[in-house]
Design a protein that fits this description.
three-stranded antiparallel beta sheet; 3 helices; Hypothetical Protein Mth938, Chain: A; 23% helix; five-stranded mixed beta sheet; alpha/beta
């Protein structure tokens, strides 16, 4: 599905998604990615929800970062799945909200929160 984009924006925007890919700033990624409104879109070392462990979560966000995100959106693939509470505990203690949803919903939600100027971070596994 193609999403509307603001070509004047310098912020990272999900511009499309579909079976097996996520597109950010019109660049297609066929692997899991992590990104926020500013900065690079980086590869995430997981290829499926089952591979998410403490090390994978540490690649996404450090709870002790100077400006941690307000919310982390985890796109879990084709369907919504939930991470073990132990993986979320460090983030929640640091005040980082965590939402898990299917990747398409996470992509749409990211764009809305990013457009509102929120400190949002997306970790998306293509559906």
């Amino acid at each position: 599905m193609k999403l509307h984009s603001d070509p004047a924006s310098a912020l990272n925007t999900v511009t499309a998604y579909g079976d097996g890919y996520v597109e950010v700033n019109r660049v297609r990624f066929e692997h899991a990615v992590v990104f926020g409104p500013e900065g690079d879109v980086t590869a995430w070392s997981v290829s499926s929800f089952e591979e998410i462990d403490a090390a994978a979560m540490a690649q996404v966000v450090r709870p002790d970062a100077p400006k941690p995100p307000e919310v982390l959106l985890v796109g879990t693939g084709a369907r919504q799945r939930f991470l073990a509470p132990a993986l979320l505990r460090p983030l929640l203690r640091a005040g980082v909200g965590v939402e898990m949803m299917d990747t398409q919903a996470a992509a749409r939600t990211y764009n809305i929160l990013m457009a509102e100027g929120r400190r949002v971070l997306a970790a998306l596994i293509p559906a």
